[in-house]
Amino acid sequence: CPDCYHSTDDVLGWLREASAAAPRYVTYEAFAGDAADAALERTMPVVTLTDTSAPAAGKERVLMVFGEHSREVITSEVALWFVRAMLDAVGVDTGALGAGREAPLSRWAEFGPALDVFAGTQGLSAETVAAAAAGGAKAAWGAAIRRALLGAEIVIVPVENAAGRRDIEGGRLCDRVVRATGVDLNRNWPYMWKRSPSARRSETYGGPEPLSEFESRAVLALARRFAPLRSYVNVHSGEWALYVPWDHKSALAAPTDGLAGDAMDVLHAMNRFCRCKAGAAGAVSGYLAFGTSMDYMFTEMRVPYPITVEVFGDHNEGRTYAKRGADAVPTTGDHARSLASFDFLRPGRGSSVGSGRRCYTMFNPLSQAEYRGAVMDWVAALMVLVDRMAADGAAGAAEATAGGASVDEEAMAQRSERAAALAADNESALRSEYASLASRARASVASAGGDGASEIAAAQSSVMSSTSIATAPMVVAFGMCVLGAFCAL
C-alpha cells in the first residue's frame, strides 16, 4: 500500500498546517520539557485538540502517546487520522492540507460500518446517545466529537521517537529502541524500573537509570503540565490488545489502587472495535514489563483511566474475532511486493532485507484494507474513550472517605463480571497465539545457535497442555523477550 503511509516529516508537517488553519481547535508545538533539553534543542511534537471558545476550567485532560517504538509505524498513522477525524467533524477542510490532498475518513468504505458500531456502543455520553436517536450514526459521531472538543483537552504526542521512525524510513526496519542509546522508552520509567545486566543487548533495556532519555522526560513534563489527567493512553503495535495496569505483575489493579471503577467497562466499549484480548497487561499479554509509562502514570500521577492499546498484529495476533473477506491478511508474496513498493523506505544497514521485512510486517499492515481497517477501528475506539472522559467528569472517580476510598459494591460486581467475560474471550485466542509465539521464539533462538530452544519447546508444550491458560503463556512470551525475539509493549 504505497499510498497509505506518511513519512514522519509529512505527519508533522500536516499537523503544523492544521494548527495554522484551525487554531480554534488544534495547536502544535515543539515541546522541550525542561530548560536543559531546550538548551540542547531537543524537542518532541505535541498537538492539543480542544475548542478554545469554551472555558478551560473543568475540562478533562487526556494524554495519548504514539510512535514510542521505532518499528511501530502504524501508531503515528492512527494519531494523524484521529486528528483529521476530529477536525473533519467541525467543518475543517482537512483534504486541503498537506502535500497529498487526501480524501477524509468519511469517504472510506470502512467509515459507515464503524459509525454504526460506534452509535450502538453502551456508555456513550447522553448527548451522543440523544444525537444517535434523533439523527442516526453520523449525527452521533459529530455530536461526540463536538462534545469532546468542548469538554476535554486531548493532548497528543503523534511521534514520540521521531528519530527512530525516520530510521525505519531509512531501511532499519526492525529497530525498536532509541538507536543512540539502545534504550526501550517503555522500560525507562521510575516505577518498578529494573537495572538490566544485559544492558544494550536487550530490546527491553531500561537505560542506565530511570528517565535517562529525553523522550521519557518530555512525556513526564507534559503529563505534569496537564495534570490532573483523566486518562493516559500509550499506543503500540505488534498485536491487537487493550490493557490496563498492571504491567509489572500478573494482577488487575483495583479501585482501591486508584483504578476507575468502570475502567473495565470502558475497555469493553472500546473492544467493540478491537475484538481482541483485553484486561490487566501482566496477566493477559503473556509477560511482565517493568518501568513502563502506564504503571507510572497510574501510581505516581494518579491517572484513573491508564490504558495501553496495541493497534495491529500480523495474522490477527491477539484478536478473539478475526476479520474476513476484504480485510483478510494478504499472502507472503503480497506482503513482500507491498513492502517493496513503499517509496519512503530505503535499504539500510540495520537489518537484512528479508529479516527486516518479516519484522516490519509483524507490526504494520501492508494492504490498504488492513491499513484502513486498523486506522478506522482505532480512531473510533479512541473516540469512545474521549466521549466517556469528556462526559464523566469527576463522577467516575472513587469517593474519598475518612477511612480511605470507598467502592460501590454493585460497581465491583459488574467489574468482576466484565473481567470474567473478557477472560473467556481471551482464552481461545491465547492458546493459538502463544503456540505461534513460542514457535517463532524457538526458531529465533535455534538460528542464533540453539541455546534455550529446549526451554522454549518445554514452555510451548506447557501452554498447549495446560488446563489453566492464565499463567503458562507468561513463560513463553517472557522467555521470548528475554531471549531476544520480538516484544510488543
TrEMBL record:
Top-rank lineage group of the source organism: Eukaryota
A GO CC annotation given for this chain: extracellular space
MF GO annotations: metallocarboxypeptidase activity; zinc ion binding
Domain Peptidase M14 intervals: 4-336
Active site (catalytic residues): E310 (proton donor/acceptor)
Cofactor: Zn(2+)
InterPro entries attached to this UniProt entry: Peptidase_M14
Pfam families attached to this UniProt entry: Peptidase_M14
Family: Belongs to the peptidase M14 family.
Protein name per the record: Peptidase M14 domain-containing protein
Source organism of the structure: Prasinoderma coloniale
